[in-house]
Amino acid sequence: ALVLRQNGHNKILARCSMSMIRDTDYFSVAVSTLNGEITVNTHELTIFKFYDTTFLRGKIGIGVKDDAAYFDDIIVCEKDEPDCDVTYDFNNKSINGWTPWERDNWSTSLKDYSVVLYLTSTSHTAPSANRLGEVITIDNINAENFTFECDLKSIEWTTNPTADLGLVFCYIDDENYYTVIFRRDTGETEFVRIQNNQEKTLDQYSG
User: Fold this and answer.
1) What is 40-69 written as a DSSP string?
2) Positive or negative CA dihedral for 93, 76, 138, 60?
3) What is the DSSP letter of 143?
4) Which of these, 171, 51, 176, lies nearest to 100 by C-alpha position?
5) pLDDT tens across 63-75, in order?
6) pTM score
7) Which residues contact 113 (CB under 8 A, 6 or more apart)?
8) End-to-end alpha-carbon separation of the chain, Å?
9) pLDDT tens digit string along 81-120?
């Protein structure tokens, strides 16, 4: 955004919406939490940094709104641990240790010269614009004060303008969690809190 700061106030003069989804390649995302301070980074940019203590601990995962996609190189490091708790490159060709909403939608597959987590189906529909249609979480992680990194790639970029991808964290159940949704059609990235099955956009990034 082009911002004029005058007399202590900001005025947005122009904005260029830029989708974080790279249509022909993976993009890397990292989410960090520390006692309610949440930071989201991608493309070497900090796109969100704010404070919310609704959910301080929970499961970690990934999801989509309406897409088929690849996910790879997932790393979870809790702050007080000397080593990262979880690293997934899916070279064992298994999704054991993961819980999806719909098991038949997920598999591992050799794609782009690497074994990846593969969301195979687009037969899922998000209940609203600020919700995901399919989610998969890591079983044995109930993380607090952590960093979560992941590589994501949409594979419907020529045919599906709503092929949005998302990270899920502090996941309690399907009615309570945070998600960062990377939107293709508007170019915006949104930070959304789902609480008691009600959604609220906490922050938005438009490039």
Assistant:
1) EEETTEEEEEEE--S--SBEEEEEESS--E
2) negative
3) B
4) 171
5) 888 777 889 999 9
6) 0.84
7) none
8) 6
9) 656 777 888 988 899 999 999 888 899 988 878 899 988 7
